[in-house]
Amino acid sequence: MNHNLFKAVLLIVSLAATMASCKEDTPPEQYLRGGNNMVMATGGSNVIIAGYNTTSNKSYDATLILANATTGDTIWSRKFGNTYADAFFSVKNSNEGGFIAAGFSNRASSNSPSVLITITDGNGTLVKSGIYGSSSNYSQAFSILPHVNADSGYLVAGYIQVSGRVDRDILLMKIKNNGDLQWEKSIGARSTDPYDTVNDAAYNIIAAADSGYYITGSLNAGYSTGKGKIFLMKISPKGDSLWTRTYAVGIGYSLIQTSDGGIAIGGTIQETTNNDIIILKTDASGNLLWSKTYGGAGYEYGANMIQTSDGGYAITGITASSGAGYDDIYLVKTNSAGALDWEHTYGGADVDQGYGIVQQSDGGFNITGLSNTDGSSIYLNRTSADGTQIWFKAIK
């Protein structure tokens, strides 16, 4: 799997998932380790990173790392997985004081992912790990959300593909605090053609202010070409679709409820030969208020986004338009209307990519991703409030 193929991947953050679908491929050295997502751990002084790390046979395990947000020092690192490839794409503080992470686990040496959910205590010790799905389906989870209603538990969003078909549908799951599956639903276009090319996937899920949830991702993407539509869907507490709005051609990866009661979607627009980062702002009913794009003459991909303490937005991702290397970690900061405040790149001469972001109480940021400065590593940095990098750590 070469780098040009990687640039065309539908889900830019699920690098490990891309490898999982490449039959008989050995992951390139640049992609043996990566941080896909990050949140502040309960208490506010540490960050928990979800991603993947290499094993002795150059496959990879789903990985959680707890690190000090101020110094970057690793407090603990834990690997979870089976014989073949496993990775986490989302992590949250659990309802019971530890952490819960979602991603995929491969059942065989190639092209057979199932949803992986892992629950740990606060020290990263395994409480329960479950694989959800059957040998007749392929599925992955990209986002997990603690349930906001009285019955607790978690919502999971991703995709499901029935064996023998090439189309994928949105996958929604509700699991209990102990990891037991409560219900599962799929949403997507259907075709009687076994080679149907209608692919749908949900990459993020958040709670709605009234009731139910919002999801975003990509709708009606071609199997080989991508080019689906960024969408916003409102779903009921039971996972039923209530309405759907579609926007530009691209991928909606980040989703946040904004301080003014609206919704912001961050991701990648794919309407020209070069991708750019996009932020879309809607009202609570999904009506588009504005959209802004960011990037240069090369390609850019947008990953995770947050609303900043000043009411603006910060989104991290990848740029090939500027910086020191082939790919560089990209951080874009905007005001509340999406106008660019500043942008920064981080990384060395090789492949460096940003996926997860949090903001600290002093206004600075931590970013995680992958880096190939001095070899493959999970990347973690700390910046000042204006995006100037203070330090970075290469975690192996």
How would you spell out the order of helices and strands? HHEEEEEEEEEEEEEEEEEEEEEEEEEEE
**In terms of per-residue confidence, which ranges show pLDDT below 50 for 5 or more consecutive residues?**
1-25
The radius of gyration computed from the alpha-carbon positions, rounded to a whole number of angstroms, is 19 Å
**How far do the termini sit from each other?**
22 Å
Number of helices: 2
Range of helix content = under 10%
Structural class: mainly beta
Give the CATH class.
Mainly Beta
Descriptive report:
The protein is mainly beta. The chain has a single domain (3-305), classed as Methylamine Dehydrogenase, Chain H. It is 3% helix and 55% strand. The chain contains two helices and 27 strands. The chain has helices at 3-7, 15-20, and strands at 34-40, 46-54, 60-68, 74-80, 86-93, 99-106, 113-120, 126-132, 137-146, 154-162, 169-175, 181-187, 199-207, 213-221, 229-235, 241-257, 263-269, 276-282, 288-294, 300-307, 313-319, 328-334, 340-346, 353-359, 365-371, 377-383, 389-395. The protein has a seven-stranded antiparallel beta sheet, with no helix packed on it. A four-stranded antiparallel beta sheet has the order 1-2-3-4, with no helix packed on it. The protein is globular.
